[in-house]
Amino acid sequence: MAVFVLSKNKKPLMPCSEKRARLLLSKKQAVVHKTYPFTIRLKKQTGNATQPLQLKIDPGSRYTGVALVMDLPTLMRALCLFELQHRGHQISEALTQRRAFRRRRRNQLRYRPARFDNRTRKDGWLPPSVQHRLDTTLALVQKLKRLCPVSAIVFERVKFDMQKMLNPDIQGVEYQQGTLFQYEVREYLLERHQRTCAYCAGESLDPILEVEHKHPRAQGGTNSIHNLVIACRTCNQAKGSLTLSEFLSTLKNTKLDKVRKVKITQILAGKVFRLKDAGAVNACRNQLGRDLASQQLPVSTGTGAQTKYNRMRYQLPKTHALDALMTGELTKPVEGWSRPTLVVKAMGRGCYQRTRLDQYGFPRGYLQRKKTYFGFQTGDLVISTVTKGKKQGIHVGRVAVRDSGYFNVQTKTGGVQGVSYKTCQIIQRNTGYHYYFNSKVAH
Ligand SMILES: [Zn+2]
């Protein structure tokens, strides 16, 4: 991973290689500014020559991939890969539980009259779990903007570009084998038909699915998205260059043909195929688009199908960070994609709750009101040097503070419990995130 570099007066400079950073540090020309993401600060004033840096984002519901890319004339060099892990589902669970407890307590006061319905929601309100997703993504973008001179943002705005597919200019164009547009159309159709044959609903047991013209090309059918469906090869070949009604009249009374008759009659009667729940996902992504646009950087967009198409062409494994790298239009060779991914996991910053509740909603002990103990907070990154006893060794990781002064440290290899605060030294204060490197392909 590239190392972020700040100037003497903390202005972002171009990131450098790990080797160069080591050299600068050993010559005492720079100091460590931040551990995660690793950032150094130069001690002397320097020039600030920059090259175009792109920030590419692939927003998802649980994970958001982010790639920092140097856009050189002949190639794209991936400098840093990030995987942002959201905690939307935890937020949603916590709020659901809180609502249940409140409702239960309110129901005990059954003689108290209801208040009138005076609750309103602000314009542009999003569910807290979704809002959190937007907030954390934007926070990471802003953080990276402070560490390096980002000059453009590319993000995956939609799964499919409907406008492009419905655009009459493209409808007339003869599409060629292997183009992005054809790929996008096929992915869209597969999604729309839930990956089953539109004529037999998988009754033929043929696993090969193809793009099919309802009104055949030979009889003047167009490549318009309205004239296309997904069909299995068996159905596609049986239909050949017949129109739908001609195909219907050739059908016999076998089990397969009976299903086909039902399906084709529905299509002839004007059944419209629609994508399932595309709206909810798009609302969130559109908001992210508006938020990113407010960053005063040029923002360009890509589609999910385009990302997948690029990933196949470059033959990269599927990870969230590499999906981000593959977002948008790509023509140049890509370098540096195999570097480890820095996982940025949203952990929250503790809770306001004063007590935990038992399963009936009754209080079960009281929580501490203090967050800081002996100068440490849960979530701080510490190094604990224990010189004797059973826990002897050097432990680096996230600390969980205890009133007693004996903390737990979550290390890479598990954790160690009950180390004294006196052995601990802070590396980085809690920022609400947990950072670690992940080099294996997951999810
Ligand atoms: Zn079929």
UniProtKB/TrEMBL annotation:
Pfam families: HNH, RRXRR. The keyword Electron transport does not apply. CDD domains: HNHc. Keywords: Endonuclease, Hydrolase, Nuclease. GO terms for molecular function: endonuclease activity; nucleic acid binding; zinc ion binding. Residues 184-237 form the HNH nuclease domain. It comes from the Bacteria. This is HNH endonuclease. It comes from Shewanella fodinae.
